[in-house]
Amino acid sequence: QVQLQESGGGSVQAGGSLRLSCAISGYPYSRLCMGWFRQAPGKEREGVATIHSAGPTTYAGSVKGRFTISLDNAKNTLYLQMNSLRPEDTAMYYCAAYRGGPICASGRLLYDYWGQGTQVTVSS
């Protein structure tokens, strides 16, 4: 059973940075597609970035060049470094995973395992 635990959310002014972390346990992360998703109030959950240890990373167009997804092998931890944050980045952020890869889906339907979410709020 894959278990995911996010941390690192918070409040920041526009232009600031945050780093989200997601601790992975219960399954070898090297066999998982991993992703970050977000959901703003009244909107659908959308993909932000995906990664596999043996495959490419992908980004939503709205975050490309500002956000970086990465894996720390030694710590079994997934990260999302968010720079140049904008008010429209305000949302609950979730890490998610499914058994597959190395090419990972950008949509949420295949992701079986989800963390509890961490709130990111960006003020103007």
Description:
The protein has 124 residues and is an all-beta fold. Helix content is 0%, strand content 50%. It is built from no helices and 11 strands. It has strands at 3-7, 10-13, 18-25, 32-39, 46-51, 58-59, 67-72, 77-82, 91-99, 113-114, 118-123. Strands 2, 4, 5, 6, 9, 10 and 11 form a 7-stranded mixed β-sheet that branches. The radius of gyration is 13 Å and the shape is globular. The termini are far apart.
Short description:
This protein is mainly β.
Which properties best describe this structure?
124 residues, mainly beta, 7-stranded mixed sheet, 11 strands, globular
Number of helices: 0
- Mean pLDDT, rounded to whole units? 95
Largest sheet: 7 strands, mixed
Given as residue ranges, the uncertain stretches (5+ residues, pLDDT < 50) are none
What is the element string, with H for helices and E for strands?
EEEEEEEEEEE
Oligomeric state of the chains in view: single chain
| β-strand number | 11
* Portion in beta strands: over 45%
Radius of gyration: 13 Å
Structural class of the secondary structure composition?
mainly beta
Distance between the termini: 40 Å
Instruction: Give the overall shape, derived from the CA principal axes.
Output: globular
Amount of helix = under 10%
